[in-house]
Design a protein that fits this description.
Length: 142
């Protein structure tokens, strides 16, 4: 099944329904993040990414102009298929294309090993964000 998964740059306006459906399912429904924390003014400025299986959007991520990668989310039924890897690689490649040599993210503590595999290093102590333990992580491109 995973061979059919592809990632593309999304358009915040045009792809809004898919982006919202995935983030609402993962962050608001599953993780109980308050909607007012999930949706912010940065969405308009960000480069968004969508992962698809066939024509069905199953994952999303965003890259901010300062190199912050965030809102990495994959629908439950597609986890464990490297969808998150593909989304992260797309975001890192786009950051590098924009000459953003440092990529930053705020990771939920359980996801640290996932981001470490992609070259990120923990850069802070633990803190709570939306009630969940997080750390800041940084990746330096050559």
């Amino acid at each position: 099944m995973s061979s059919k998964i592809r990632v593309r740059v999304a358009n915040w306006q045009k792809d809004n329904a898919d982006l919202r459906r995935i983030r609402e399912a993962v962050f608001i429904a599953e993780q109980a993040v308050p909607p007012e924390l999930e949706w912010d003014a940065e969405d308009v400025e960000a480069v968004h990414f969508l992962a698809f299986e066939g024509d069905y959007a199953i994952g999303t991520a965003r890259l901010l102009p300062d190199g912050h990668i965030g809102r990495v989310s994959v629908l439950k039924d597609w986890r464990g298929l490297k969808v998150g890897d593909q989304l992260m690689r797309a975001a890192i490649e786009e950051a590098e294309r924009r000459n953003l040599k440092r990529q930053l993210l705020t990771a939920q503590v359980y996801a640290i090993p996932f981001y470490e595999r992609l070259g990120f290093k923990v850069a802070s102590g633990e803190f709570l964000e939306a009630g969940l333990p997080h750390v800041d992580m940084v990746r330096e491109s050559d």
